[in-house]
Structure formats: structure tokens, C-alpha cells
Amino acid sequence: MPAFPIEHEQGPVMMTIEYRIDPTCAEEFAAVMRDTRADRLRKGALSWVLFEDTTVRGRYLEYFPDKSWAEHLRRFERMTASDWELRARRNAFHLGPGEPKVTRYLAHSIKR
Questions:
Q1: Could you give the count of Cα atoms lying within 13 Å of 97 in the half-sphere of its Cβ?
Q2: Which domains does the chain carry?
Q3: Mean pLDDT of residues grouped by 10 in the chain (112 residues)?
């Protein structure tokens, strides 16, 4: 839940998901993330990148923006059985308590 009101047309919205995986599973994780990339882009993400932390082995950050808050919310309204299965495949690699850490950011307009 956002800490402040967000209008549906506001955006873009950047979402990051932090994964901690066993470094010996990096190739298998990358294969699942290739499927994730295709899925996110097919469903309207403006771009998609998977970053690997240069200081912590096995720490990855998935990044993708949506055009607006409304588009971001629609992503979750459209979840299919296939989406849930892909999510479970990704999360199966995550080590530690709980699920991967999800963070959402709203673009801030800086006026001159």
C-alpha cells in the first residue's frame, strides 16, 4: 500500500524485486528470468533489466517500469495461472526468510 495518494495517470512507476540466490544456481535462475523478461515486456513493461550485485554474490535486482500507476495496478489484476507458476519458479530460487523484497517508485517531476 502506498504511503501517499497516487492518481491513476501518474507515472512512470518503477518496480524492483531483490532476489538472493545460491550462486551455483545462477544459470538456472537466468533461464527463469529470461522467461520473466519476455512475460513482463509482453504485458506492457516499458523495459526490463536484471542486475547482479558486484559486491554480494547471488544478489540480483530485477527492474521494470510501467507507464502509469493504473498500468502497474492492472499488472496484478491480470494474473493468470501461468503468471503464478512463473512467479513460483522465480521465488523458488530465493534464499532466506520470506519472499523477494519488492519496492515501487513513482517518478517525481522536478520543475525548473
A1: 0
A2: 13-106 (3.30.70.100)
A3: 90 97 97 97 95 97 96 88 96 93 90 65
Q: What is the pTM of this model?
A: 0.91
Name the β-bridge partners of 106: 13
Beta strands in 3-112 (DSSP E): 13-20, 49-52, 59-66, 101-106
Q: Which three cell numbers stand for residue 102?
A: 519488492
> Nearest CA to 66 among 104, 17, 110?
104
Residue in the block written with cell 492518481: 7
CB atoms < 10 A from the CB of 27, how many? 7
